[in-house]
Specification:
The protein is mainly beta. It has one domain. Helices cover about 0% and strands about 60% of the residues. It has no helices and 16 strands. The strands form three sheets. Strands 2, 3, 4, 5, 6, 7 and 8 form a seven-stranded antiparallel β-sheet that branches. The radius of gyration is 21 Å and the shape is globular.
Length: about 250
């Protein structure tokens, strides 16, 4: 009598999960002086439906009065944090609604010196649902910049954070799994700045950190944004994952 033996076959089927970082394109206006606003120009134009996040830092503090939209009207949201009257960090974001969007940046009530860097992100949620949470911001006087925290409601959020230090010639090292997307170490302007991003891997409280090469008064802020598939990288942290199925006979 012949015995039938069941054979288990494991089939690995790769599939792509979508993550937002790194940005599709970046722009920067490093080292503006005595301006009532910043203007960062993208090449090529930002695609309709993509998220634009800008980190702007200024010496002193101000009131945001509007935005420069680069050829197409947008709805912008701003988050800010202060270090007394020393400096201010601003995160501005929008989802591009019309073609021809080539430049952007906030405007403010008076003239200030500072820097600005922006990123264009794809695979993001629609404008009505993309914003997840943001920190209240943090400030101090040291080499260790921290953003404060917020707790997202979706896994695999895009986290964008940035900060300013009131000293020349400082460089920055990203915290944890973050990637520095832009930084400027001025020799005479009086400030340095950096911004970073990461794809989160779970729904725990998120905090961004940056280490500066020297101690100075600083402010830092972070914001979390939902991707178009907000549960995809939960628990694993990989943006490309393997799906395993068992076929038996």
């Amino acid at each position: 009598m012949k015995r039938l033996i069941a054979v288990g076959l494991f089939l690995f089927i790769p599939y792509q999960t979508w993550c937002a970082a790194p940005p599709l394109h970046k722009c920067a206006e490093g080292g503006f002086t005595s301006q009532p606003g910043s203007l960062c120009s993208f090449t090529p134009n930002v695609a309709v439906g993509n998220l634009v996040v800008c980190v702007t830092v200024i010496q002193g503090t101000t009131t945001i009065t509007g935005d420069q939209d680069g050829g197409t009207a947008q709805t912008w949201t701003h988050y800010t944090t202060l270090n007394g009257t020393s400096n201010e960090t601003i995160i501005s974001w929008t989802v591009v609604a019309g073609s021809g969007f080539g430049s952007c940046g906030p405007t403010w009530a008076d003239s200030h010196t500072g820097d600005s860097g922006c990123g264009e992100y794809t695979n993001m949620a629609a404008i009505g649902t993309v914003a997840d949470c943001h920190s209240a911001g943090s400030s101090g006087n040291s080499t260790a910049l921290t953003s404060g925290s917020c707790t997202p409601t979706a896994a695999n959020d895009l986290i964008v954070a940035g900060g300013i230090s009131m000293a020349n010639s400082l460089t920055y090292t990203a915290g944890g799994s973050y990637t520095i997307e832009g930084q400027e170490a001025h020799t005479s302007q009086g400030n340095s700045y950096g911004w970073e991003d990461v794809n989160a891997t779970d729904c725990t409280a998120q905090t961004a950190t940056i280490t500066a090469s020297g101690s100075a008064p600083w402010s830092m802020l972070m914001a979390a944004f939902k991707t178009s598939s907000p549960t995809v990288c939960a628990g694993g942290g990989a943006c490309k994952m393997l799906k395993m199925e068992r076929l038996s006979e």
